[in-house]
Amino acid sequence: MDDFFQALILGIIQGITEFLPVSSTAHLVITPWIFGWTGELNSLSFDIAVHLGTLLSLVFCFWKDWIEILFKDRTLLVYIVIGTIPAVLAGLAFHDIIETTLRNPLIIAFTLIFIGALMLLAEKIGKRQRDSVSFWDAVIIGTAQAFALIPGVSRSGITITAGLFKGLKRDYAAKFSFLLSTPAIAGAASFDFYKSIKMSHSYDYSLFLVGVISAAITGTLAIKFMLSFLRKYPLNIFIYYRWLLGVMIFLLYFFK
């Protein structure tokens, strides 16, 4: 029962934090570390599983957009493909390093604080004038997404930040970020599923199902909240949260 409760909590955390610019991976790594949870729930494979839940959220919230992209707006489809390539290449090249070396509380604390500073800078100098993307927007935002593989960076945080630097409006930067994350999450989940079968890992898939469902429900709510929030407000509250969490992790690491 404890494992199911932990899977539920981690699924809720994933759903909320995947679309808020605070790094879902950081929270999925730090939460088991703080509470001493071990086993398959504290693994990249479970992280990928709950990412499937947020993939369902994306499909539910943007299915109309995807139909239009696939059948009408082929230019945007090309830009999404271009923006996805850097993350795919980085994931294939650095998967093992990400799963082991980079899942470290000190690295997470540093990236939380550093990316928070970038977000603040983007808020200060971003013009926030455009609600469409260009070829170079796709290249730059897609390259930024590749860095989100580092725990603590945040996929939504780094891509929205890159969008702001390129002059996109906040809510459109978030929408393009969410659209861009869809194939990346789908690809990462497929790759890890294939790898787990190939390596004959034995998982309790009922725990994974709890995480997927809870992540899907909370992820849908988080998407709707984020798009509405960014139409009116800046990223500051998330920046301050990142800094506070980063400092707390540093303190826990050295004094726990």
Give structural notes.
The chain starts with a helix and ends with a helix. It has 256 residues and is mainly alpha-helical. It is built from ten helices and no strands. 80% of the residues lie in helices and 0% in strands.
Question: What's the SSE blueprint?
Answer:
Blueprint lengths: L1 H18 L4 H12 L8 H28 L2 H26 L5 H21 L9 H13 L7 H11 L4 H29 L6 H26 L5 H20 L1
Helix pairs in contact: 1-2, 1-3, 1-9, 3-4, 3-8, 3-9, 4-6, 4-8, 5-7, 5-10, 6-7, 7-8, 8-9
Number of E-type strands: 0
Name the poorly predicted regions: none
Give the mean pLDDT.
89
* Helix and strand composition category: mainly alpha
Helix content: over 70%
SS element count, helices: 10
Distance between the termini: 27 Å
Radius of gyration (CA) equals 17 Å
What can be said about the biggest beta sheet? none
Shape: globular
Strand content: under 5%
Order of helices and strands: HHHHHHHHHH
Structural features:
single chain, mainly alpha, globular
What is the gist of this entry?
The chain has 256 residues and is mainly α. The protein is built from ten helices and no strands.
